[in-house]
Amino acid sequence: MATANVSWSENFSCSICLDGFKNPVSTPCGHNFCRTCVTKLWDEQVKCKCPVCNELFNTRPDLRVNNLLSEMVDRFGTSVRVKEQPCAEPGEVPCDVCTGTQLKAVKSCLECFTSYCQTHLEPHQRVTGLKKHRLVEPMDRLEDRMCNKHDRLLELFCQTEQVCVCQFCTVTDHRSHPIVTLKEEYDMKTAQLGKIEAEVPQMIQERQKNIQEIKDTVKRSKADADREIADGVQVLTALMRCIEKCQEDLNQMVKERLKDTEKQAEDLIKELEQEIEDLTNRSSEVKQLSHTKDHLHFLQAFRSLKDPPPTRDCTKVEIRPPFYVGTLRRSLDQLNEKLNMEIKNLCNVAELKRVQQYEVDVTLDPDTAHTHLILSEDGKQVHEGDVRNYLPDNRKRFKQYMHVLTRQSFSSGRFYFEVQVKDRTVWFLGVARESINRVGGIIETPGNGLWILDSNTNGLVFKDNPAVCLPLKAKLQKVGVFVDYDEGLVSFYDVEARVHIYSATGCTFSEPLYPILSVGYHGGINSPPLIISPVNQTD
C-alpha cells in the first residue's frame, strides 16, 4: 500500500492542487500539472517558472495536453485512489464530492455543509480562505444539525424546553433557560437510559410474574369450576335418586292399596257366590216341598227343612275404592323434607371439600404462648401445665390469657386448618390480627381483632357483640377454620359431622392474621391437648 501511495503521489497527482490530474499538461522542463492549476498560477506571476524545478521561461510556454498521462490517470488513477482510502460502509458517513464509488468521509465542514474524504479535504487544509472553515468529525444529514432560525450548528441543549439550540438561541429565545452542552445532556440522558435499561428487565420480570399469576388464577379457577360441576352433579344425582325413590315409594303404596282392594273384593265375591249357591239349593227344596199334596208327608218334610244359611245384608255390602286424595301431597311433603335434609348434607360436604383445598401447614409459636401452656416439640399440640414456666419475656407473649399463636401469618388469599378438640369442654380457636393486645384483658370480639369459636360449660358461641349462640347435635371432635382474607370471611366447620357451624361475613382485615388457640382456664391440667391435625379430604 505504501508503494501504491508513493506512486500515486509522485506520478498521478498535481503538485499544485495535490489532487489527481485533471487535463494534465507538460512544461518544457518535463513536469506535469493540471491545466487549470498551472494557468492560474502563471496568471498571478510576472514571470513564468516551473513550480517544481523553478526553471524560468522567458516566454510563457504553450502548454499541450499530455495524452499518455491523461490516459493513465483515467485508467489507473481511480483504482489507486480507491485502494489508498477506504470506501464508505453502511452506517458510515460517505464523501459528498466523490462520484461513482464514494469514499469514507474523514471530516465534515459546517460552513459548506459537506463531508469530505481525505483527498477532497485537501483544499480546506491548503487554501487560506477554506482553512477558516470549521471542520468536525464526519456527520450525516448536516442540514438537520443546523438551527433553522440562525443557520448555526445545534451544539447546546435547553433543559427547560428539552430542545437542541445554537449559540445565538441562548441569547435570544432561550436566554433565561438553563443551557448545557450536548455532551453534558448526552451523559445525563445516557445515565438515565442506563437506569431505565436496568429497570426494564425487572419490569419485564414483574409482568411475566403477573402473567404467570393470572395463568395460575385461571388454572385454579378452572379446577374450582370442575370441582363445582362435579359437586353439583353429585348433589343433583343424589337428589334425583331421592325423587326416583319417592316415585317408587308412591307407586308401591298405590299398588299395595289397589291390591288390598282387589283382594277384599275377591273375597266378598266368593262369599256372595256361596250364599247364592246355598240360596239356590234352598229354593229347590222349597219348590219341591211346595208341590207335595200329602199333608202328613208335607209336615214331616217341612220339619226336616234346613234352616236358611246366614246371609249378608245386601244393603250394606260394598267395597270402598282406595282414597288417594292427599297421598301425593303427603308424599311430596316427605320428599321435600328429605330433599332439604339431603341438600343441606350434600352442600355441607361439598363446601367442606372446597375449603379443605386451601389447607396450610401451621405450627405453634412458643414465643407467644402463655407461661402455663405446654407445647409439643413439633408445635402441633398445646395443653395446660400445673406449674408456671419461667420463659423469656418478650412483647409477643400473652401475659393474662392462656392463648398461643402460630408462627405463620397470612395477609391475603385463603387458608384452612383443622384442630382436634376431642374430649375437651373448654377451649376456643380462630384467627387474630397481629396487633392484638397480649398484655391486659380484652373483650374477645372482631372489633378487638379476634374471630373465634368458643366452647365452654354453657355451650358453643361465636364471640361477637352480642355473642352468637350455636346449637350442636353432637359433641365436637374436630373443628375446621377457613379464612378468605380478601372477601372478609371466617367460617367454622364440624369436620367429623361434615357440617357448617358458623360464618362471620363482611369482616375487615387490614393487617396479618394468625391462627390462635386457647385452652381456657377450666379445662383441668389433665385435659386432652388441642391438636393441629392434618386434613383428611372429605369423600
Key attributes of the depicted protein:
8 helices; Herpes Virus-1; six-stranded antiparallel β-sheet; single chain; alpha+beta; 539 residues; seven-stranded antiparallel β-sheet; Jelly Rolls
Q: What's the short version?
A:
The chain is α+β, with helices and mostly antiparallel strands and 539 residues long. The chain has helices spanning 2-11, 35-43, 67-84, 118-126, 128-131, 182-290, 295-304, 327-356, and strands spanning 24-26, 32-34, 48-49, 56-57, 64-65, 107-109, 114-116, 135-136, 156-158, 163-165, 179-181, 373-375, 381-384, 403-405, 414-420, 427-433, 450-456, 459-462, 468-470, 478-484, 489-494, 499-504, 513-518, 530-533. Among the domains are: 1-84, 2-Layer Sandwich (Herpes Virus-1), CATH 3.30.40; 207-316, no CATH class; 373-533, SPRY domain (Jelly Rolls, Sandwich).
Report what the structure shows:
The structure is a single chain. With 539 residues, this protein is an alpha+beta fold. Among the domains are: 1-84, Zinc/RING finger domain, C3HC4 (zinc finger) (Herpes Virus-1); 207-316, no CATH class; 373-533, Jelly Rolls (Sandwich), CATH 2.60.120. 37% of the residues lie in helices and 18% in strands. It has helices at 2-11, 35-43, 67-84, 118-126, 128-131, 182-290, 295-304, 327-356; strands at 24-26, 32-34, 48-49, 56-57, 64-65, 107-109, 114-116, 135-136, 156-158, 163-165, 179-181, 373-375, 381-384, 403-405, 414-420, 427-433, 450-456, 459-462, 468-470, 478-484, 489-494, 499-504, 513-518, 530-533. The strands form 6 sheets. A 7-stranded antiparallel beta sheet has the order 12-13-24-15-20-21-22, with helices on one face. Helix 6 (182-290) runs antiparallel to helix 8 (327-356). The longest helix is centred in the middle third of the chain and has 109 residues, at 182-290. The model is unreliable at 1-9 and 78-83 (pLDDT under 50).
